[in-house]
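Hi V.,

You were right to ask for the full record rather than a summary. Here it is.
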Amino acid sequence: MKDSFIGTKNRKKYAAVCILLAAVLILASCSLIPESLRSGAARSGEPEQQEILIPVTRGTISADLSFVGNLRYKQSSSLTWKTNGVIEKVYVSVGDQVKKNDILAELDPDYLSSTVLIAEKNVVDGEERLEDVRESETVRMQAYVDLNIKAKALTEAKLAQEALYYPRATRYDMERAWDAFALANLNFNYAKQDYDHLVDSGEGWEGYEEGREIRFGGRTFVIGKDDRSARERKFEDYVSTYNTLVSAYEKYVWTSGMPSATDYAVAEGNVQVAQKEYEKALETYRSYDVLPREKDVQAAEISLNNAETIYKQRYVYAPFDGMVTAVNAVEGYYITRGTNAVRVDDMNEIYVPLSISELDLSLVSPGTPVTITVDAVSGKVYKGYILDISDASAASGNTTSFTALVAFDAPDSGLLAGMTAEVSVPAHEKENTLLIPNEAISYHDGKPTVTVVNGTERQTVTVTMGVVSGNITEIISDNLQEGDLLLVSSISADSLRALGLDPAEYLPAGSENHRGPGAERGR
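Predicted structure:
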């Protein structure tokens, strides 16, 4: 029994020692497990994700812009009936050329509503009323002009009459007139003495030629033509001084004299005649006071336009010059308002409307040449140009775009409205601009962002993109600088080459996702 008890006790001690040993071994073994396994990476079976830092570079980028749109004519219009009725006549067929305001079809008046029939009479009445209003207004304006003329004539007549009761000139002017008269008389006497001396002495006829005429005192004298004749010169001086004397005398008499009774009577008569003419013109003008005013003219025009609008509902008019491309109207058919009647297209010009993003707007302008391919016309490339770009933008979600119109240099008959066309703008090259890989761009709330790494700091920066070409993108905002390090999870060798970087420096052989030297520079 004793041996048995001791054996049992020893076995328990042995077991305890074994358990203690096992615990020590387990703890020892735990210290030898790699950190990666203790962190759970080994248990997951996945490699740790590598991060790459790519610098912002500066270089040249170019890209072709491509847009898609549907052809449309310069003007197109699907014309509909404006009222109910039965079609009486269709005047056009598909392919007919029409002019603006041509009647293309009309309804039978026997089936028109009473409103349209009454409008026909209202049009006639409205035209007559408007004509009367306009004519009467014209006559009134003519009477107003005549009244002003007569009022001016009366004022001038009264001023002339009033002037008769004042001296004609100041005393100074009278004295000057007398001096001028006295001087003219002296000069005349000298000239007369000179001429009389030549006549009495018989001298001064050398060079005499017959035929020259001089008017003097209302008579004509024929003397020699040779201006070297002394007598001729003296005679001309004699005539000239005489005329000056007469003019000076008349001026002196007028300035120093007083009006005669006849002058007063004539002035009074002129005032009375002008007064009567003015009163007659005033009476005529006042007789037009009851005529319609301007607002009455406007009311007549509005009434006529309304009547014409209703009356014209029985017709379908061409809205512009063009070609009839569809005819839905059939004679004898009953139609309702809004039913299609005729389609007219201006096929002389055809365009491609495009929607251009605001990011690409700086790359195009009116006149920019383009190439156009049309799906329905295989194997042919058309040349064209940007004709116009809208000033107003249209927003759709987070995208803002502008409408541009593309014109063909030489369109042909194979181009029809509705065809799908692809428009390409030639490569636009920009030099010395900031470039980043497309892999660095992500979007937050619809806006492009990049992650900039500066040492241990990381900052998310919203950027403005310019030209996008292949694997790289131009940055036109000023919140990035050349050499800034951008975080990417992966990058292709093509992207690195496009940025002017050596793939071997960032991507070891056989690897497309590696933490390269850029990462070391960022630490």
